[in-house]
């Protein structure tokens, strides 16, 4: 109200300054000579000071409770201030419904996951203090992609994706790319919950020259924090399972979190050469990417596979991708794909019981 900067914090004692009965928590056995030491002091606002010292709250704001609160806060500040500038990361969040459902992916949720990786989130003023946020929840039409037969669902998906792609492009063009060009974005942390084709597309729009961490939502914990890595990480393999390379198109089946059986492959793709990417030392399962190292192994496998195509299949123009993969894997697939070097990706979805093409990533080459 005055327009002036004034100090509103107050020094509060955990154990009261004296042993008098009116001194909050003063009956504690702490020596009086130690009661004005930093370990027994907290900086609080006036209203909090009044509340924690009130007689009616003494059973809540105990010496142990206040000490724990002080320790937790100091540990957090010590952690954050101990991170050097090289540990900063720009947070990119994309949130969209999947079959009408969404999950919580707030700024704080992303920040907690990032700090667990010993980085601190960079929320620049130019990014409205929320990092780079791609909100697809208001994009109409997603609910129409689950109704009707496969053809009508595919048509609805393409309409929805055209609008969603415009939202993604707008945010990348006006927020993330300028930050990269200015040098203010030197590391990126990506969180995505949306339909798989859109996650592949987002991955393709991220600058592959900027170091990037991709995060996965873990269902058991309902958390985006990567669990501690225990046991061997999952590795992946690529094998040819049918068809000769006689044309400029091929099929890629990604059996990672689930399995796509042969008769589910659309009939128009049956004669094409087929590549299958699957775990080398584990069975497919929804939580197969529990470890961050497993996602890195999948990324390495995809990079090696695309590099192999550059030398062994130079005539390929289009790869029809049938993905049974976690969302983080979809982001990685988009990131490793180079639109000027690699074949166009045609991403399929299972809609109304059939796999249909819904989104193309990258440009075809003549």
UniProtKB/TrEMBL annotation:
InterPro entries: SAVED (IPR040836). Pfam families: SAVED (PF18145). Residues 172-360 form the SMODS-associated and fused to various effectors domain. This is SAVED domain-containing protein. The lineage of its organism: Bacteria, Bacillati, Actinomycetota, Actinomycetes, Kitasatosporales.
């Amino acid at each position: 109200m005055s327009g002036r900067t004034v100090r509103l914090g107050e020094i509060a004692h955990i154990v009261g300054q004296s042993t008098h009965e009116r001194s909050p928590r003063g009956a504690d056995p702490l020596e009086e000579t130690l009661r004005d030491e930093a370990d027994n002091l907290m900086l609080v606002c006036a209203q909090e000071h009044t509340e924690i010292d009130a007689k009616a709250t003494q059973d809540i704001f105990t010496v142990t409770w206040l000490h724990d609160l002080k320790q937790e806060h100091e540990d957090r500040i010590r952690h954050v201030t101990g991170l050097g500038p090289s540990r900063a990361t720009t947070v990119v969040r994309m949130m969209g419904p999947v079959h009408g459902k969404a999950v919580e992916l707030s700024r704080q949720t992303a920040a907690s996951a990032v700090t667990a990786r010993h980085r601190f989130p960079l929320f620049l003023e130019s990014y409205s203090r929320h990092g780079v946020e791609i909100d697809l929840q208001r994009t109409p039409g997603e609910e129409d992609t689950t109704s009707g037969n496969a053809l009508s669902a595919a048509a609805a998906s393409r309409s929805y994706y055209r609008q969603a792609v415009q939202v993604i492009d707008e945010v990348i063009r006006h927020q993330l790319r300028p930050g990269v060009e200015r040098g203010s974005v030197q590391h990126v942390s990506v969180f995505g919950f949306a339909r798989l084709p859109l996650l592949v597309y987002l991955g393709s729009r991220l600058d592959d020259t900027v170091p990037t961490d991709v995060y996965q939502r873990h269902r058991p914990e309902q958390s985006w924090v990567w669990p501690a890595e225990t046991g061997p990480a999952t590795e992946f393999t690529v094998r040819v399972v049918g068809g000769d390379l006689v044309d400029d198109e091929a099929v890629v089946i990604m059996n990672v979190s689930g399995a796509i059986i042969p008769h589910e492959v659309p009939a128009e793709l049956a004669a094409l050469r087929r590549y299958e990417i699957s775990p080398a030392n584990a069975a497919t399962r929804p939580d197969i990417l529990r470890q961050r190292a497993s996602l890195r192994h999948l990324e390495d496998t995809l990079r090696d596979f695309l590099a192999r195509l550059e030398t062994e299949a130079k005539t390929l123009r289009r790869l029809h991708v049938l993905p049974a993969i976690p969302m983080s894997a979809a982001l990685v697939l988009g990131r490793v794909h180079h639109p000027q070097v690699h074949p166009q990706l045609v991403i399929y979805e299972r809609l109304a019981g059939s796999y249909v093409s819904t989104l193309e990533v990258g440009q075809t080459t003549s």
